[in-house]
Design a protein that fits this description.
Elements (H helix, E strand, L loop, with lengths): L2 H10 L3 H19 L3 H15 L10
């Protein structure tokens, strides 16, 4: 069994509140990984171009 499968299995046994805590942690961890990388800067640049062209930005809903 892979590590990912083990984690998925463990998560299935968590309460809803514990799942939310894992979700928040994972979201923050991913955000930290993207912070100021070239990929992150490119995404920001692309979004700015799209907004300047009149496209509505995608809004992330919590």
């Amino acid at each position: 069994m892979s590590t990912v499968q083990e984690i998925e299995s463990a998560i299935r046994n968590l309460s809803l509140e514990e799942m939310r805590q894992v979700h928040d942690w994972l979201e923050n961890a991913l955000e930290d990984q993207l912070a100021f990388t070239d990929e992150f800067k490119a995404r920001i640049g692309q979004s700015e171009k799209e907004m300047a062209a009149g496209k509505r930005p995608r809004v992330r809903k919590p």
